[in-house]
Amino acid sequence: MMLLNQPKLKQDESEIRNQDNMFPISYSTLDVTALITKILTSYPIDPVEKCKFWHRGLSDVYFVKTQTSRYFLRISHQHWRCRAEIEFELELLDFLHHHQISVAYPLRTQGGELFIEINAPEGKRYAVLLVNAPGQIALGDLNMTQSLKLGGTVAKIHQVALNFKPSVQRQSLNSDYLLESSFLIIAPYLKKRPTDLNCLADIVFQLKEQLKNIPQTSPFWGICWGDPHSGNAHFTLDDQITLFDFDQCGYGWRAFDIAKFLQVSLQSGLSKKVREAFVEGYEEINPLTELEKNHIQALTQTAHIWAWAISVINAEQFNYSRLDCCYFTRYLQQLKRLHSPNWQ
After folding, report:
1. Of 157, 168, 158, the residue nearest 85 (C-alpha)
2. Among 110, 103, 65, 282, which residue's Cα sits nearest to residue 95?
């Protein structure tokens, strides 16, 4: 028996040595076949007919098709979100789904889990299977009806989520995180542009001082989606809405969700009437205070700086070539416009 087992032992020792000599990696693309056999079989779904790599963003997303349904399998990036942050997001989506908010919610595994841990070569990654959001992104961007509905749905999220009790904590969307941490990510790229660096530092300082005026208590403070815009909502032909992509959610100022919508909408050129419809839809359900309205511009600039920092983080991992002079000039110009009196 020992002689029969000896070659196997040597093979195992060789495999261990090869693993020890393996070159370190920071990111891997997971094999589709393995995802089907090792991950998707854990879910109570029909046999998978198709699984294709769909999109690489802040996570890797795979399109999954069975005979009866469509899903999206999201695999976290090891450098972007930790287990607790992902767990918080998924618990929120599960909570919203069970409180009749139309979101692309996570399916539970046959064992009742919201995610599956994967031992990827670069470290722990987490797989989540999400239901497909019916409909599609608004063609040509939002119309008045769709914008009104999106604003109203965000207001419902803020109201419903007042009763959300997560089992884990997540980084708050406060000024230290949104502004100070973002500045530390962007600043090294502006070292050779001292005028621009000082401009950004001055704006960050001003914004932090302004945001001290908004209490971090109810009704001002609560669960935020973190990324409400037309690209994160599907509409059916009769304008039924389903929201998705809650990767940036957390506790924050409710007015920040208004500001984030405005920041993305201004960047994409959405008309003022359609932007105003979003705010109108929100306030029909959840009116803002004058204090919050007076700080929307500051929060919109804050949203821009935070989005800028996230863009830098992602580019450092997957597309460093885009971090050229024109990239930083463009973001600075956009920030200066948002900082101006005629920002809208």
Report:
1. 168
2. 103
Topology at the third CATH level for domain 144-339:
Aminoglycoside 3'-phosphotransferase; Chain: A, domain 2 (3.90.1200)
Contact 161, 223 (CB under 8 A): yes
Q: Where are the domains of the chain?
A: 28-131, 144-339
- pLDDT values of the chain reduced to their tens digit, one per residue, 344 residues: 333 344 444 555 555 555 667 789 999 999 999 999 999 999 999 999 999 999 999 999 999 999 999 999 999 999 999 999 999 999 999 999 999 999 999 999 999 999 999 999 999 999 999 999 999 999 889 999 999 999 999 999 999 999 999 999 999 999 999 999 999 999 999 999 999 999 999 999 999 999 999 999 999 999 999 999 999 999 999 999 999 999 999 999 999 999 999 999 999 999 999 999 999 999 999 999 999 999 999 999 999 999 999 999 999 999 999 999 999 999 999 999 999 999 99
Tell me how far apart the alpha carbons of residues 178 and 308 are, in angstroms, rounded to a whole number.
10
Report yes or no: 71 and 131 within 8 Å, Cβ to Cβ: yes
Backbone angles phi, psi at 228, to 5 degrees: -80, 120
β-pair partners for 52: 63
Residue 108 Ramachandran class (φ > 0 left, ψ -120 to 50 alpha, else beta):
beta
Give the integer Cα–Cα distance in Å for 320 and 74.
23
Q: String of b and e for 35-68 (b: at least 16 CB within 10 Å)?
A: bbeebbebbebeebeebeeeebebbbbbebebee
Rounded CA-CA distance 298/294 in Å is: 8
The CATH homologous superfamily for domain 28-131 is Phosphorylase Kinase; domain 1 (3.30.200.20)
Q: How far is CA 32 from the centre of its chain?
A: 23
